[in-house]
C-alpha cells in the first residue's frame, strides 16, 4: 500500500521552500525580552541554505515590538519582500524578522539568530534546553562512536597524529571526522588561537593553528572541551579538517572531501 502523508511530512512550496510542522516548544529572546513563545513552530529550509530556520504563527510573536523595516534587506530569504525591524531591550535591530512569500506560510514570521548571522535574537530555547546557531534538523543524525581503527594524520608531509583509539563522528551530509586523544597528537606543532565556533549538535569548539607555515589554513584543528551530552565521547579530543590534511585509516589514504568548509579552508594570499 502507498504511504499516506502525515502531519509531519515535509511539504514543498512553488517558491522552492521546504517546510514541516514542528512539535517543540520554542522561545526566542532579545536580552531579557521574550519575543517568541511558540508551541506551533514550523521548520523551513531555503533552497540555498543547508540548515533549517524556524517560522512562527503571528499570534505567538510579540508583533508589538516589530516595525516595518526602514531599509528592507533585498535579495535575501527566497523572495521575501516584507521585513521588520525589532525594537526590544533598548535596541533597534534592522531586518531582524521577515515573512516568506509562500502561501503555505502566510501568517508566519521568521527571525535572524544572532550567533549565526551576527544580528537578531540572541537566545533560543527548545523546551528547557538552549540551542545555538540554528534549529537542529530532525532529518540529520550525529553519532560519536569509539573505535579501534588506526588513524594517522599528516600535514605537509609531517605525521602529526597517530592513534588506535579514535572516536569517529558520523554526521549526516558531512565526512567522517576522526577525534583523536591529545596524547596521540603532536600538539607542540600547533598553537592555540582565540577562534571559536558553535554547533547546535556538538557545542562550542576551540581551535589550534599549524606552526609550520606552508599553505596550511589557520584553525585546522579543533576540540570540544564541553560538548553536548549526545556527543560526550569527543570531549577534549582533537579533530582535523579532512578537507585540508592527509588522513590514513587502517593503511588506506582517505580522499580529501569537498564540503561547505572547503572554500573557507582555501589558503589566502
Provide the CATH superfamily of the largest domain. Domain of unknown function (DUF427)
Radius of gyration: 21 Å
Large-scale geometry: elongated
Order of SSEs: EEEEEEEEEEHEEEEEEEEEEEEE
CATH class of the largest domain: Mainly Beta
Give the termini distance in whole angstroms: 59 Å
How many individual β-strands? 23
* Shape-level CATH architecture of the largest domain: Beta Complex
Low-pLDDT stretches: 1-6
Fold-level CATH name of the largest domain: Metal Binding Protein, Guanine Nucleotide Exchange Factor, Chain A
Query: How many individual domains?
Result: 2
Arithmetic mean pLDDT:
91
Strand order of the largest sheet: 1-2-5-6-10-9-8-7
What is the count of helical runs? 1
Largest sheet: 8 strands, antiparallel
Summing up helix and strand content along with how strands pair, one would put the structural category as mainly beta
Helix content: under 10%
Instruction: Give the strand content.
Output: 35-45%
Amino acid at each position: 500500500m502507498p504511504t499516506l502523508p502525515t502531519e509531519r511530512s515535509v511539504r514543498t512550496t512553488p517558491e522552492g521552500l521546504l517546510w514541516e510542522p514542528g512539535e517543540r516548544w520554542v522561545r526566542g529572546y532579545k536580552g531579557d525580552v521574550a519575543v517568541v513563545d511558540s508551541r506551533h513552530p514550523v521548520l523551513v529550509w531555503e533552497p540555498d541554505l543547508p540548515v533549517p530556520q524556524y517560522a512562527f504563527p503571528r499570534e505567538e510573536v510579540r508583533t508589538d515590538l516589530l516595525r516595518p523595516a526602514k531599509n528592507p534587506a533585498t535579495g535575501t530569504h527566497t523572495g521575501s519582500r516584507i521585513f521588520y525591524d525589532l525594537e526590544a531591550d533598548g535596541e533597534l535591530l534592522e531586518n531582524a524578522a521577515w515573512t516568506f512569500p509562500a502561501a503555505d506560510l502566510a501568517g508566519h514570521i521568521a527571525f535572524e539568530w544572532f550567533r549565526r548571522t551576527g544580528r537578531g535574537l540572541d537566545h533560543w530555547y527548545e523546551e528547557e534546553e538552549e540551542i545555538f546557531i540554528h534549529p537542529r534538523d530532525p532529518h540529520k543524525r550525529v553519532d560519536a562512536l569509539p573505535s579501534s581503527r588506526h588513524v594517522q594524520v599528516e600535514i605537509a608531509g609531517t605525521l602529526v597524529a597517530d592513534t588506535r583509539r579514535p572516536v569517529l563522528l558520523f554526521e549526516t551530509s558531512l565526512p567522517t571526522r576522526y577525534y583523536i586523544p591529545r596524547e596521540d597528537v603532536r600538539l607542540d606543532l600547533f598553537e592555540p588561537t582565540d577562534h571559536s565556533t558553535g554547533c547546535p549538535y556538538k557545542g562550542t569548539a576551540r581551535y589550534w593553528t599549524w606552526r609550520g607555515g606552508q599553505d596550511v589554513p589557520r584553525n585546522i584543528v579543533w576540540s570540544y572541551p564541553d560538548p553536548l551530552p549526545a556527543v560526550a565521547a569527543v570531549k577534549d579530543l582533537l579533530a582535523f579538517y579532512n578537507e585540508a590534511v592527509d588522513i590514513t585509516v587502517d593503511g588506506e589514504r582517505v580522499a580529501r572531501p569537498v564540503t561547505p568548509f572547503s572554500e573557507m579552508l582555501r589558503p589566502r594570499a
